[in-house]
Amino acid sequence: MSLLKKKTSLIREKRLQAISAFFEPLDILVKENNKETQFLQRVRTFSQETASDILYAVNIISTIPDSAIIIHGGAGCGVGRLSLEIVDRNNGKWAVSNLNERDSILGSDVKLSNAIKQVYKLHNPKIVFVVATPIVAINNDDIESVVDELTEELGISIVPVYTDGFRSKIGTTGIDIVSHAIAKYILKRNSFANTESQKADYVNLLSISESEENVSEVNRLLQELGLQTNVFPRNTTLENIQKTKNASFSIPINPDEADYPGKIFESEFTIPYVQSVLPVGIARTSQWISDIAIATGKQTKVIELLEREKSKLTELLKKKNGNNKKVFINISPAYTIAVYDLLLELGYDVVAIKLTYIDQLHVSFVEKLNAERPDLPILVGEGQLFEEENLLRKINPDIYIGTGDFAVAIRNGIPVININSINIIGFNGVVQFVDKISKTLSNTSFTQLIARNEQKTYTKEWIKKSTNWFIKQEVK
User: Fold this and answer.
1) pLDDT above 80 for 381
2) How is the chain split into domains, by residue range?
3) Bigger pLDDT: 324 vs 258
4) What are 8-12's contacts with CB under 8 Å, separation 24+?
């Protein structure tokens, strides 16, 4: 059955059996994962707020420069725009349909229709994204009819993005929803026979959350292999979106984020999806470029490329600056896997891991890690700073590597490496990563000052409790 027959994508809990609540030694997670139950679902009886699928979705579509965005919900729903960590390329082409109390119950396709028409009149966008909110998910407002009518009337692409903020506890589901919406309402709507003779001499580079600098590094490596790229969906245009159907291959940067669009392109448009690892660190970047070279028939060029790139890093790796310093990692699964291996290469000791979520794409890594470190603590859940501080106070690491909110680490005097502040992808990323760690550890006076003067937020009683105090097995 076609993935695009459904209104939107399955949530990650159903599609990949993802979990978002867990804290135990690693061997417990492995024992629980079997063919019948897969990862055992748990719930938090108390949970702090985390980023929803809406915020993840908006973070992507706001990078598409020739589009406009309509938040279909109450006026307050538009505050989601403030969460963006990027420069908004829509240049103010935003609107909210402004549903009131009555509309929240009965719906209002009239307000949505008027909002689309006004945005079109003011900005003349090539694409209008209509982002559904929890209000619409509850009242089941008929977005589809409005989209069908105005697509024909205005002659532009109008794309409903069916987020809702509560079906999934994993915000990354919003990435799948956007990929599904673009494929269904732009690519499939104007579909044509996609034969081998129509395949063009470029590949789809699936970039979801990477900075432009990281994408440039990936493009540099692919161009060394003689591959031209068409980037999708981040920072793309309508023309480039339409080009995706003719690409010869789809290549991921982050395999967690690119999994769904890669599978859509493969099943709907017969574009082979090159499954590989995240190109962070020497070993994984080498594997990534080798996998691509084999799939695309560029093997003759890859050996020379790898030798040249690795030779630049020889002296760097000889230094082994880690000195067994204890590291806590708090990032998304694919980055955790790659950074973990890179830290081992550099001589660091990872003492605990926190993941935003974990699913069946990560089983091989979990099993490998379990064979080496069965007692390694693993905390799963985006946000949840109260659990994070509980764990950090117990393990007392020398370095904290992550993204997002670093308040917990800093007020406990732990130096922070923010991987969003460096270009960590590819061989050049190794140099920047090592340099960042070196500079951070050479001057820890700021974090030490904060730790001495910061009033501790959590009580001694909470710190004494188990980190998983509020994490319970799901009762069905």
Assistant:
1) yes
2) 51-168, 196-311, 320-473
3) 258
4) 8/162, 8/177, 8/180, 8/181, 9/173, 9/176, 9/177, 9/179, 9/180, 9/260, 10/176, 11/167, 11/168, 11/170, 11/173, 12/168, 12/170, 12/172, 12/173, 12/176, 12/357, 12/359
Closest C-alpha to 63, from 39, 93, 104, 43: 93
Bridge-based pairing of strands 471-473 and 42-44 is: antiparallel
Residue 295 · residue 266 · CB < 8 Å: no
Please tell me whether residue 355 adopts helix, strand or coil conformation.
strand
Rounded to two decimals, the pTM is 0.90
Task: Specify the range with the lowest mean pLDDT, choosing from 46-50, 275-279, 342-346.
Answer: 46-50
Gap between the Cα atoms of 224 and 228, Å rounded: 10
Amino acid at 278: L
Q: Which residue has the tokens 């679902």?
A: 41
Please check whether the two domains, 51-168 and 320-473, share a CATH topology.
yes
Q: What is the CA radius of gyration of the chain?
A: 23
Fold of the domain spanning 196-311: Rossmann fold (3.40.50)
CA dihedral 407, 410, 416, 421 (to 10 degrees): 40
| CATH number of this structure's domain 320-473, picked from the four choices 3.40.50.1820, 3.20.20.220, 3.40.47.10, 3.40.50.1980 | 3.40.50.1980
Contacts of 340 (CB under 8 A, 6+ apart): 329, 350, 353, 369
What are residue 80's phi and psi, to 5 degrees?
-55, -25
Write the pLDDT tens digit of every residue in 102-156: 877 777 888 899 999 999 999 999 999 999 988 888 887 889 899 999 999 999 9
Rounded Cα distance between 302 and 43, Å, is 46
- CATH topology (fold) of 51-168: Rossmann fold (3.40.50)
pLDDT at residue 310, rounded to an integer: 85
Spatial distance between the Cα atoms of 411 and 424, rounded to a whole number of angstroms: 26
Residue 192 has what pLDDT? 47
Pick the closest to residue 217 from 429, 418, 403, 421 (CA basis).
429
